[in-house]
Amino acid sequence: MIEYETHDYDVIVVGAGGAGIRAAIEARSRGLKTALVCKSLFGKAHTVMAEGGVAAALGNVYPEDNWKVHFRDTMRGGKMLNNWRMAQLHAQEAPDRVRELEEWGALFDRTKDGLMLQRDFGGHRYARLAHVGDRTGLEIIRTLQQKAVANGIEVFMEIKALRLLRDSDGVVSGLVGYWRPTGEFVVFKAKAVVMATGGVGKSWLYTSNSWESTGDGQAMALWAGADLIDMECVQFHPTGMVWPLSVRGILVTEGVRGDGGVLRNAEGRRFMFDYIPPMFAAETADSEEEADKWYSDHTAGRRPPELLPRDEVARSINSEVKAGRGSPHGGVLLDIASRLPAADIRRRLPSMYHQFRELAGVDITAEAMEVGPTCHYIMGGVRVDAESAATTAPGLFAAGEVAGGMHGSNRLGGNSLSDLLVFGHRAGIGAADFASGRSGDVSLDQKEIAEVIDDATAPFGRENGENPYELHRELQESMQSLVGIIRTGSELDEALESLERLEERAGAVSLSGGRPYNPGWNLTTDLPSMLTVSRCTAQGAINRKESRGGHTRDDYPKPDPEMGKVNFVQRIPQGAPRSGGVCGTPAIRSITIGSEPILAMPDELQQLFEEAT
Amino acid sequence: MAEELTRAAVSGEVTMRVWRGDDGGGEFADYVLPAQEGEVVLDVVHRIQATQAPDLACRWNCKAGKCGSCSAEINGVPSLMCMTRMDSLPAGETVTVAPMRAFPVLRDLVTDVSFNYEVAKRIPPFQPREKTEDEVTVGGYRMQQMDVERSQEFRKCIECYLCQDVCHVIRDHEENKTSFAGPRFFARSAELEMHPLDVNDRRELLRRDQGLGKCNITKCCTEVCPENIKITDNAIIPLKERVVDASYDPVAWLGRKLRNRSKKSAAEAAATSPAEGPAAVQGDDPAHGIPGPPSRWVDGDDWVQDTDAPDAGTDPHTVGAPEGAGE
Ligand SMILES: Cc1cc2nc3c(=O)[nH]c(=O)nc-3n(C[C@H](O)[C@H](O)[C@H](O)COP(=O)(O)OP(=O)(O)OC[C@H]3O[C@@H](n4cnc5c(N)ncnc54)[C@H](O)[C@@H]3O)c2cc1C
Ligand code: SF4
Ligand code: SF4
Ligand code: FES
């Protein structure tokens, strides 16, 4: 059998994005032996790409703002499917978590009074996003990274975690993975594990996500007995680049619209005025004149429709393109050039300026950008307890994009970075408490470890098998065309069949080269999680026979009040058959789904919604 | 935009000469692919993986110049693969892609950059001043935009380490890695030094342990920085001035520091450093200890063109490298 090294910790955090590092800092500060494990180099996680800002009701620009308004915006943006308690804690704690970053060295842009400046984003009633130009994620990850180094947290970088391990009582007790640089296997024993592995975007063809977003955490949690919820709720961000093809999907920050950018169709019309939904009609401007006043003074007019929640804007763009009023490459036009002086654009949106100039040869201070929807974020994820971030699998905690509930069926921009900080912090406490309370030796099943290693290395023994890149491409095409922004029952059924065929083929991959830094192998070991979460999304989408937030069914175009009262919950029963694919993961057809009532909101919070309407 | 959109689709082929190997050696391999419009070098490397060499190793994450993972030497120039458009390179010529030379090769285009993470651990961390009464009331620190901008420039750094790669003090002198932090970390120290809230004094450490004196201001680092950080002018030169102040005139330094409260002594700062003590101090004569950069790097504008590719050898960096400047 292949040898492996073993490390022993109190708390292992899988994932070094904002959520993971924040969790590790908290666990470490409570005196626990803590390590971070991540797939790429430290400081490169997806969080680094976040642009527009972090939402927190600091009230620095609009003193009227407070947690209740933020809470209400978040719930309405999520079409009330959110875990209200998470949304409440998030709105209440985000300001402290953001200010704390400043104490750790972050330098946000300032107001005239010297406080953190806040910018407008879709769905937020007040200018609420603290930011650093359009590189807020970089500022946050660097601040957390430097704090983690200062706290002496050990970081195991470029390790791919394959499977969680449980002790004989079924408590999560560690994980097995491999070092990407050497291909050597490694086992971590831990009294508690925090999952903070981010999103799933790499299963779609056009996505703003990095290669790491392969749903490993959602899948590993599910395989270890945890529940997933609302996996059909995937956010397509309205503005991704569409041209050239090689950059299709790369994000264009919502900050462009927050700072005054408007959407036009090929005829030059600001078409968002044609798509204002009743739920937001009372607070949305219905003429260009009114909308334009709003930018300088939010009390002078109602909000421009370009700043409706993302699901609304993405669907509207989709409809314009379908109606034949799209831009030359199948998007629409995002115009900031005619709205702000060139110098302001370069100062407020430096990376957008750079990105378009370098990658598309477009000068955004002089011409419009071509944009269209891109797969961006998954609202669904691992089911967690709001207070402690505990999953339904004992010993396992989850925070950040991998966790579900906080954002309901649609996330507001800026609410992810704050989510990472609030629930990363809480998961760190939850895991630390669990680890401190766990007595006795942590024992692992050697046979299980051996099986995972055998399965992971099996493709090297095969010849003339499937090409993992080809399988990935087919998976992306299938998800893009069948489980995309607009869905329909028959196509979703087709997607399930195609996923099962791909699963079978994934078990027949053959590889050349060795294990050290072999991207073909790395991708092969990502396939089981991509297939698993794709299956969850398709299955959830079949069951949610309504349109809500990020989930739109052509055959059920309206929200159904009854469906709005349930979460779809997925799990894998004990003893489910194995897929025969790499890593011997449970067969995707063994994933079960059922509906459970959403948490009931207490009256005093319910009141906030009645007051508003 | 119209002009951009109607541009004819690219036709023909591209030839990529990519370094394949590991710490034991290797060679360049040529790959010929159909050309595609609007591609960056990283796209082509990905197509090689998908169609011809599934085990070709490279690092990348964001594909948008934001994460600093995909650093390599393209036609001899340290660059981000995801931000180098194929149509910015000489048409019809072979494109050479090699790993960064200053770091040991792990495999193919992937290098061992752990040196940088070790240096980062030795920099005394940020330490803010106390909040004023007013700040306690409002909950956050007050800083003016103008005062944060100087440090913000350095905080744009995406840690691609291209500046570390190009700096001759490390590139050509492996032994300096114990006594020279490199431009990335001078920028980091400058960021902290100019941070309106920070009270740690790192000047003595910079001089003694980080080898600031070994930098002879060639500006090569500034030229490769994809974030356009003026590392030499805005970080290194001001730091050098401050370090001189520290040695000779603490009063002048105090006057220079914008909102200086109670800067700590170097010894105290070192004590708050999380990692073990700084690396052993090497006999340093900052101004003269290090030979000048090889000719290729002196003339900042010229080296870019110096890419006539000789035969593929066992050293990924023989391409365009001056004679005798190998590993
Ligand atoms: C372009 C872009 C712009 C965005 N802008 C904003 C914004 O302005 N505001 C906002 O609030 N949100 C924004 N978002 C969303 C937000 O950035 C993400 O949702 C968030 O960063 C996710 O953070 P995370 O900590 O959950 O995980 P990530 O940052 O995705 O980190 C995941 C970590 O898990 C590790 N990992 C994954 N799988 C494994 C495995 N198998 N083994 C070991 N390690 C593993 C990875 O290496 C990584 O370290 C943006 C997203 C994108 C793509
Ligand atoms: S200016 Fe030259 S010597 Fe100094 S750090 Fe930059 S590259 Fe190195
Ligand atoms: S300073 Fe510039 S070149 Fe150096 S690591 Fe940072 S971004 Fe890269
Ligand atoms: S892939 Fe992120 S900088 Fe190139």
Query: Helix content range of the residues of chain B, please?
Result: 25-40%
Quote the distance from N terminus to C terminus of chain A: 65 Å
Bound molecules: flavin-adenine dinucleotide, iron/sulfur cluster, FE2/S2 (inorganic) cluster
Span between N and C termini of chain B? 46 Å
Approximately how much beta-strand content do the residues of chain A carry?
A: 15-25%
Which blocks of ≥5 consecutive residues of chain B have pLDDT under 50?
1-9, 258-267, 273-327
Which CATH class of the domain at 458-597 in chain A applies here? Mainly Alpha
Instruction: Tally the helices of chain B.
Output: 14
How many domains make up the coordinates of chain B?
2
How is the biggest beta sheet of chain A arranged?
7 strands, mixed
What ranges of chain A have pLDDT less than 50 throughout 5 or more consecutive residues? none
What fold name goes in the CATH topology slot of the domain at 458-597 in chain A?
Methane Monooxygenase Hydroxylase, Chain G, domain 1
The strand line-up of the biggest sheet of chain B is 2-1-5-3-4
Structural class of chain A: alpha+beta
Quaternary organisation: heterodimer
Specify the CATH homologous superfamily of the domain at 458-597 in chain A.
Fumarate reductase/succinate dehydrogenase flavoprotein-like, C-terminal domain
Q: Determine the mean pLDDT of chain B.
A: 79
CATH class descriptor name of the largest domain in chain B: Mainly Alpha
Silhouette of chain A: globular
